[in-house]
């Protein structure tokens, strides 16, 4: 058998050996079949190298891990000094959805301004925190209340960016997925009574990790509170008096003037939609007062509570806030005041008092949130 090889550098045929060099590599061959096999191996090698390169490119451009996004969020929270945001909040707790515009200001470390306005813009409420304390302002009633409270650190807040980030960081079992434009987290809430609203879905924009939307869900995964952010500006500069209570009260009253006395104005009685097993409405009384009427609803059974509602009066001088024992409580549609055995709030010109020695704090909040549905007993 005649065996030849071609020198890879000179291309000359040599009859003294039995190897062929391909790109400085030498492979034995004895016929044309073997040569074709060598070319096939070379092609496979090139395909393998190309595949490896594709894997590296995909890894560089692919999805971010849960740990990586959480690390970025932790750094963002540490560096966060201020922001402004606008959002639309929808509540699904009555027969009809209620829509509110929300404007949020925050300045590090503890200055907050959250302005809630309903869609018709005929009522508004503001929760404000500055160096003097936490204030709840109701401009249309010229009322302001002051709390000594650590709000908002003590609970989840669906419209506060840093609160959402904290919810993600603290839930070690949070679920994480990645969509085309968003990082999506499903976390537990940090509400004081979170059995009613235990879960939330938080969508963050990929480009800057700002919030896009939040859905707060009940145990059946129904979204009862939805917040859609339309704008978030990080690193905002604020005027020195931006969080001043008197300035904000005056500015709010330019949008929604103080209500007239309207002592003859009627209001519609509302009944809680929340049901507590073994508890039902057993008495309803109407009491005449100087400002009109007061309705007292009594619920009895295995547990008992009383719900009082009457037309809210206008405070003569709202520049001097009334101190309240308790903490502000976010009922979604309004901010109330919660003490050990009661919750007080104002909504659509009506003042409510829910009182009970039997209900748990969770049940109290559930009942209060539900007093906004249809007028049904």
Note down, in words, how this protein is organized.
- The longest helix is centred in the first third of the chain and has 30 residues, at 32-61.
- The strands form four sheets. Strands 11-12-13-14-15-5-6-7-8-9-10-19 form a twelve-stranded mixed β-sheet, with helices on both faces.
- The chain is 20% helix and 38% strand.
- Strand 3 (19-22) and strand 4 (25-28) form a beta hairpin.
- It has 377 residues and is of the alpha+beta class.
- Mean pLDDT is 82; it is low at 1-30 and 54-60.
- The radius of gyration is 33 Å and the shape is globular.
- The termini are far apart.
- It has three domains: 5-61, no CATH class; 66-255, Clam (outer membrane lipoprotein receptor (LolB), chain A), CATH 2.50.20.10; 279-313 and 339-370, no CATH class.
- The chain has five helices and 23 strands.
Relevant terms:
seven-stranded antiparallel β-sheet, single chain, twelve-stranded mixed β-sheet, 5 helices, 20% helix, alpha+beta, 3 domains, outer membrane lipoprotein receptor (LolB), chain A, 23 strands, 377 residues
Topology overview:
Elements: E1 5-6, E2 13-14, E3 19-22, E4 25-28, H1 32-61, H2 66-79, E5 82-91, E6 98-107, E7 111-118, E8 124-130, E9 133-138, E10 143-147, H3 161-170, E11 175-178, E12 182-188, E13 199-205, E14 211-217, E15 223-234, H4 245-255, E16 279-289, E17 292-301, E18 305-311, E19 322-323, E20 327-330, E21 335-338, E22 342-347, E23 350-355, H5 361-370
Parallel strand pairs: 10-19
Antiparallel strand pairs: 1-2, 3-4, 5-6, 5-15, 6-7, 7-8, 8-9, 9-10, 11-12, 12-13, 13-14, 14-15, 16-17, 17-18, 18-23, 20-21, 21-22, 22-23
């Amino acid at each position: 058998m005649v065996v030849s090889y071609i020198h890879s550098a000179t291309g000359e045929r040599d009859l003294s050996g039995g190897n062929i060099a391909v790109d400085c590599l030498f492979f034995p061959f004895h016929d044309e079949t073997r040569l074709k096999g060598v070319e096939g191996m070379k092609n496979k090698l090139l395909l393998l190298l190309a595949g490896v390169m594709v894997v590296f490119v995909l890894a560089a451009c692919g999805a971010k891990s849960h740990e990586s996004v959480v690390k970025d969020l932790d750094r963002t929270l540490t560096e966060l000094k201020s922001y402004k945001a606008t959002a639309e909040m929808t509540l699904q707790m009555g027969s009809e959805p209620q829509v509110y515009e929300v404007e949020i200001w925050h300045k590090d470390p503890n200055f907050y301004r959250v302005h809630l306005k309903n869609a018709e813009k005929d009522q508004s409420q503001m929760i404000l925190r500055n160096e003097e304390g936490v204030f709840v302002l109701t401009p249309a009633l010229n009322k302001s209340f002051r709390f000594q409270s650590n709000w908002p650190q003590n609970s989840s807040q669906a419209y506060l960016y840093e609160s959402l980030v904290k919810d993600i960081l603290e839930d070690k079992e949070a679920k994480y997925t990645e969509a085309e434009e968003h990082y999506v987290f499903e976390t537990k809430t940090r509400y004081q009574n979170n059995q009613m609203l235990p879960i939330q879905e938080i969508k963050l924009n990929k480009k800057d990790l700002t919030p896009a939307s939040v859905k707060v869900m009940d145990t059946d995964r129904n979204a009862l509170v939805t917040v859609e952010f339309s704008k978030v500006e990080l690193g905002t500069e604020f005027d020195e008096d931006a969080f001043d209570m008197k300035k904000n009260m005056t500015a709010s009253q330019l949008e929604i003037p103080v209500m007239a006395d309207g002592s003859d104005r009627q209001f519609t009685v509302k009944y809680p939609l929340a049901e507590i097993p073994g508890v039902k409405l057993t008495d309803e009384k109407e009491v005449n007062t100087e400002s009109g009427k007061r309705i007292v609803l009594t619920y009895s059974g295995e547990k008992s509570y009383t719900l009082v509602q009457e037309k809210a009066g206008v405070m003569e001088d709202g520049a001097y806030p009334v101190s309240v024992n308790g903490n502000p409580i976010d009922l979604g549609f309004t901010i109330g005041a919660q003490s050990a055995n009661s919750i007080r709030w104002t909504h659509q010109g009506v003042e409510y008092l829910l009182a009970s020695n039997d209900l748990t704090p969770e049940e109290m909040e559930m009942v209060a949130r539900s007093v906004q549905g249809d007028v049904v007993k």
